[in-house]
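User:
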Amino acid sequence: MQERSAQAPDTPFASFRQRLAALARRIPRLGIGGRLALGLAAVGIVILIGHTLATETTRKAVEAVRSMQQDHEPIARRAGTVVEKLVAYDRAVSGYLQAARAPDIEAITSARNALEQALAEYFNSEHTRTLIPPTQELRERITAHVARGQALAQQAIQRADWVATRHAAIERLQKRVVSAGGAGLRIDEDQVFARRSLAELTTAANALRGFGEAGSGAAEERQFAAVLARHAEELARSPGEAWLDLVREDFQTARRLRRSIARFDAINGPAKREFLDEGVVLTGQALQELHGPARRGVLLAAENAAAAAEAAEATLARTGIAVMAVVLIIACVLMVTITTPVRRLTAATRQIAAGNRNARVPRGGSAEFDALAEAFNAMADQVVAAETELRAHQAKLEQHVAERTRQLHHLAHHDSLTQLPNRRQLGSRLANALSRASANNQKVGLLFVDLDNFKSINDTLGHNFGDRVLQLVAERLRTAVGPQALLARLGGDEFTVLVEDVKSDDEVMALANDIVETLQQPLSVKGRVLSTSASVGASLFPEHASDADALLRAADVALFRAKELGRNRCAMYRPSLYDAAAQRFRLEQSLRRAVEAGDLMLVYQPQIALHSFEPIGVEALLRWRKPDGRVATATEFIHIAEKTGLMHELTEWVLRGATSAVAAWRAQGWARASVSINVSPQQLFEGSFPDQVKQALEVTSLAPNALELELTENVFQTGATTIDALTRLRDMGVAIALDDFGIGYSSLTSLEQLPLTRVKLDRMVIDSVDTNARSAAIARSIIALCHGLGLQVVVEGVERESQLVFLSKCGPLGVQGYLTAQPVAADLVPAEAAAAAARARKILEEAAARGDSDNPDQASLVFVEANPRRIRG
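Assistant: Predicted structure:
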């Protein structure tokens, strides 16, 4: 009875456990991977939360630092620059006004430009307008302050002129008195005999000379006037009335200028003090209104960055602690949940090893162990299924390999951009076509098609745009040549057309003309309407070649001829064209050998300023010393260098040689030596040319103003890229000159668009100025136009004295020609430049002595009749 009562309470509990176990079996098991995933997910959530918090605080720190670097620090620097340039400007104006004589106003102009640039950079900055709204009133006051400084400087120049004029008047007065006997007649070493009136006048004049500044000299002037009045009657008799009138005139001039200087100083003194006081006030306001807010912004941004960094550090520390705690908990749970099912699986395995074939791995535990028991029993079936799947995959792989093989074969024989046959397929098809033509006694035509100026499309509009142009051109060529001909792309913008069974040359030329006309039609590419053209070269088998390579060369030679004729046309091969191409090739090879062997040399022709008779620079001229001893000028071979890619090497060589020569001249004492070199448009088209110039100047330690680059109007053919390169060079301080001006169709456009400093008039402009009044008027107009645009002028090809006389009346300009100087080697340049200046001076002085300057047109005509021979070098 007691036993049953003791067991009774266990019956309801056992029933509950059974129901709970049944419920657990119906719930899907969570495997080891799931448990690991659950644990890793927990770790990931903790890390993600910590990462999010740390990222946010780090982002704030980075934004604070970036704000300090990009927004506040530039503003502070620009504000500091404004204050610095304002102080420098006031210092320059103050120094200018305190000088006894007016120095060069260039220092004030430079300080003003620097201040205006600093103001523009500060007030026009987007960050300044956003973070610190500028005070326009302060800017206007600074601008007005600058204007007052300029006005004071101009007034100081006027005062210096007055002082100099007064000194000159007193000097004349003193000389007149001395010349009249004021110095006396020395009898011996201790006695001098002189008229009393002249002696007193000399003493009074000497007293006048000792006072030249404002506020002094009034008493001495009264004393001189009294002496002059006292002895006026005697002086009127000797030295005479005329002498006395001149003395009085000089004295009145000195007195009037002294009074003007005194009045100027009385007015200008307060203005100067007011200007300096205003500068101090403006400096303080600039520090307060511009520099102060910017510096406070920098400090605030730094504080924000420090606070954000500390917050990020704390967040990272808390995240690390949380991750370690979660990992420890997950490790303990996984250890318990994994070891128990493993022990059950080990026991079942031992039973099978003992020989119990009916033993099975009991189901239960994690999903992986349960799936392991089921997988063991179905292993054989899965192996069969795996083998079947492997066979199917192998068949699919073999099919894919075959497809890729066909694609690779297509790529090997076709152009990937236009899908046209490529060079390899063309070679094979051309060889087969020539074999058939030889067997059947037929003709084969070959056309080379090259797009004109396609490189400029790529460089200006981009390679993607250029690729689309090539695709559209390929489509048009397919239509033009038809299905009977083979169209191939060799590469770049070169296409080839192979035509079999040609009846005559006219048929080939007709097809070539059709291609030229087809490609003349405008193309619509990505919303742009583009005008294109092409040059076509044609050759014919067997008339022009007997094999494929020779036929290709013949078509290429014909293509070159079409481009020589002006592009946008076609040309048929002729044997004479091959001879010309061979001659060009030989000249090119000779030129390359000359560059390597050092057979090139530079000579220099001085340029002389007619208004000062000083050398203003030299032009570097390239020469080629031929093996036969003859020296060739650049015009004989420069076109070959441009067409064969040698211009880069030649220009670099000339640049190094010319800058080294200038450095040597300056070291010898010619401080203002400079050199001009001619630059090809191809060289300017390369973006690296300004860097080459900069490197050459750095190697020789030359200032940029020691170098001038000469270019012709052909530079416009290379587009905006060249203008950008010239602008970079001009910003460096290198001078830019437009050569051969006056004979091009776009000369005025050149003056407007190019960043020029100098214009060089072509010899044709002045060729007949001494014989033709119309030519003289045109030359004067061109020179006046250039001067009106602020451009310096150098006239080339001056070979007659009458030309030089004419040019000397056309304002400040330089001349270059065989009349004044010959091109000489570098070591002879300083002497030749000095001699050229002397020759120019002598010629003009002799012309003036003959009276040529009184009637330059008539004198020039007479000179030409007497001296018809031109001077040659």
